[in-house]
Design goal:
Methylamine Dehydrogenase, Chain H, 6-stranded mixed sheet, 1 helix, WD_repeat_GAD-1, WD repeat, Anaphase-promoting complex subunit 4 WD40 domain-containing protein
Length: 406
């Protein structure tokens, strides 16, 4: 990648990033609570966003953004317990319900009861999306009905209590669902496996009987469990599957990236260390042909800048390191335009870096860089005015004399 542009507008690090399938529309979320929308087809060389959603989820940091397979909608997951669905132009379509925090068994609640930590739209089905939360559950949502969830996935625990889910991911074909947990384990469910009904039978005193009909299902039996995938005290920030469902990558706050073979999960195939990670949303990804995989590193206090680091999948060797402004957190490689987008920044500024090569990339940044912004016209007039509020009923000591003096 020989060229680079920066999409600006955020005042803190860009922690969530999504690009639609065509590669024409980009949405970025930040720790400043805002979401910005960019359109390569309509954007000019000044690289300004066409829309900003100010705090769409309230005063909560954005943790995940994901487009639907058709690109007409996207899910916004923040530190709130209620994910939201927006259309392609940023109009809010609905919000999922909050669960009852006084119900102990989380499979019986209709939504999350604690803040969300991740989410993703189903890669092939337009009607399903997913989110995970600090309440220890992964929930599958019905996109058409905002008052209902489709299923609740509960991890298998070795001790009583609640274990937070810190990351979740679909496999590219949508058949597997993985979650990283606060106890250091990674648990994988089959999306087509058996689910149990969440309906609860109630017996009320003295003899009346009723049936509380929960219309969703649940599963507490993962297909695979990696008990000691990472240390229990460090947060798993991202999980990714390869297209053949044979390779899985995990990124953790212990500054490592681990490569796993799903056919042999006793130990990782390779462990890459000294990849500094200071953000809970630091991601990993594959190149479109899956010959490479990459991750971001965080800036350090000694002045070391964050970077985008590439590795070769088959030889499992380091390939290249590209320095980024601040910490590299969110990232994606779009196959249609063959360009890499990286969400960067720190506590003072956030940008989305677009890496491309005119020889191999198509559209995307190449399209907008070819358009010059509208030149300034001398006839353009801008008036600086100050809003003044007059109160005719103010007390005498505060009253303003509006009479003209002769």
């Amino acid at each position: 990648m020989s060229n680079e542009i920066a999409l600006k507008g955020h005042s803190k690090v860009v922690s969530a990033l999504a690009v639609d399938h065509s590669g024409s529309r980009v949405i970025s979320g930040s720790h400043d609570y805002n979401v910005r929308m960019f359109d390569f087809q309509g954007m000019k060389r000044d690289l300004k966003s066409f829309r900003q959603l100010p705090a769409p989820c309230g005063d909560h940091q954005m943790v995940a953004l994901s487009f639907s397979p058709t690109g007409d909608q996207f899910i916004a997951v923040s530190g709130s317990c209620q994910p939201k669905i927006f259309d392609r132009d940023g109009t809010e379509l609905g919000c999922y319900p909050r669960g009852d925090m006084y119900i102990r068994d989380q499979k019986n609640t209709k939504g999350h009861v604690m803040g969300c930590t991740g989410g993703q739209w189903h890669p092939t089905e337009r009607g399903e999306a997913m989110s995970c939360s600090l309440d220890g559950t992964v929930r599958l949502w019905d996109v058409e009905r905002f008052n209902s969830q489709k299923a609740v996935l509960k991890p298998a625990q070795t001790r009583p209590g609640r274990i937070s889910a810190t990351a979740c991911c679909y496999s590219p074909d949508g058949r597997l669902i993985a979650a990283g947990l606060a106890d250091g384990s990674v648990q994988i469910w089959s999306a087509t496996g058996k689910m149990n009904s969440a309906a609860v039978g109630l017996v009320l005193p003295p003899k009346q009987q009723c049936h509380y009909q929960n219309k969703w299902s649940y599963s507490n039996s993962p297909k695979h469990i990696l008990r000691s995938a990472h240390p229990a005290d460090d947060e798993i920030t991202c999980i990714r599957f390869s297209f053949d469902n044979h390779t899985m990558l995990t990124r953790c706050a212990d500054h490592t990236l681990k490569v796993w073979d799903l056919r042999k999960l006793k130990q990782p195939v390779k462990v890459f260390e000294d990849l500094y990670n200071n953000y809970s949303q630091t991601q990993i990804g594959f190149s479109p042909d899956e010959t490479l995989f990459f991750t971001g590193t965080s800036a350090q206090r000694d002045g070391t800048k964050g970077a985008l680091v590439f590795f070769e999948k088959h030889s499992l060797q380091f390939v290249k390191k590209v320095t980024m402004p601040g910490s590299a957190v969110a990232m994606t490689w779009n196959a249609r335009i063959n360009q890499i987008l990286v969400g960067c920044g720190d506590s003072k500024v956030g940008t989305t870096q677009v890496l491309f090569d005119p020889a191999v990339s198509e559209r995307g940044a190449l399209t907008c860089m070819a358009r010059a912004p509208r030149p300034k016209d001398p006839a353009d007039v801008q008036i600086d005015y100050q809003n003044i509020i007059h109160n005719p009923h103010a007390l005498p000591i505060f009253r303003e004399d509006l009479r003209k003096r002769k």
